[in-house]
Design goal:
Protein name: DUF1579 domain-containing protein
Structural class: mainly beta
CATH class: Mainly Beta
Strand content: over 45%
CATH architecture: Beta Barrel
Number of domains: 1
Shape: globular
Mean pLDDT: 94
Order of helices and strands: HHEEEEEEEEEE
Length: 169
C-alpha cells in the first residue's frame, strides 16, 4: 500500500452521507476562470483546474488546485494549493485548512449557507477576516467568491472570483 492508496476513498463515510454531501457534491474535476486582485488593486484573469475527492475513509473532502496566471514576464505562471475539509459531527461544521507550497495557510470553518450555498470563514494572523463562498451551485457549475474584511466584518472587499464548470466524466 502507498500513502495515496490509504489517503483516497471512493465514497462518503457510511451513515454520514447527508452531512458530507455539503462538499461531496463537488467531487470531480472542474475547469475554472479565475479573476483575482493583486495587492496594487489590479485585477488579473487566469485559469484553474480544481479537483475534489474523498479522503480519510470518506470522512473528508480534499482538493488540489492548479492556477495558471500571467507572470510578470508575460509567460504563464503555474502555482498550486490544496484544501482539506474535515466534517465534525459534534459541531455540525467543517474544519478547513487551505495550504500551498508558497507557505500560505488559511484556516476556516465551513457550514451550509442559504439556498444551498456553502459559507466558509476564518481569520488571518493579522486579524483580517476572510469569507469564501460557493454560490450558484448546480451539478455542472458554481461560482466561488473570496472576500476580506479589515474592519471586523463591517465592510467586505471582493478579492477573488472563480467561475467553475464540471468536466465531463
Amino acid at each position: 500500500m502507498t500513502l495515496l492508496d490509504e489517503l483516497g476513498a471512493d465514497r462518503p463515510y457510511q451513515g454520514e452521507e447527508k452531512a458530507l454531501d455539503l462538499y461531496g457534491r463537488l467531487v470531480g474535476t472542474w475547469d475554472v476562470v479565475d479573476r483575482s486582485r493583486r495587492p496594487d488593486g489590479e485585477w488579473v484573469t487566469g485559469t484553474v483546474v480544481w479537483t475534489f475527492g474523498w479522503v480519510l475513509a470518506g470522512r473528508a473532502v480534499q482538493d488540489v488546485m492548479w492556477f495558471t496566471t500571467p507572470g510578470p514576464d508575460g509567460y504563464p505562471l503555474r502555482t498550486t494549493g490544496s484544501t482539506m475539509r474535515l466534517y465534525d459531527p459534534a459541531t455540525d461544521h467543517w474544519h478547513i485548512v487551505w495550504f500551498s507550497p508558497q507557505g500560505w495557510t488559511k484556516t476556516l470553518t465551513g457550514r451550509p449557507g442559504d439556498d444551498g450555498d456553502i459559507h466558509q470563514e476564518g481569520r488571518l494572523d493579522d486579524g483580517t477576516i476572510v469569507r469564501w463562498l460557493f454560490t450558484e451551485l448546480t451539478e455542472s457549475s458554481f461560482r466561488w467568491l473570496g472576500y476580506i474584511s479589515t474592519d471586523d466584518g463591517e465592510t467586505w472587499d471582493l478579492e477573488q472570483e472563480m467561475l467553475a464548470r464540471r468536466r465531463p466524466d
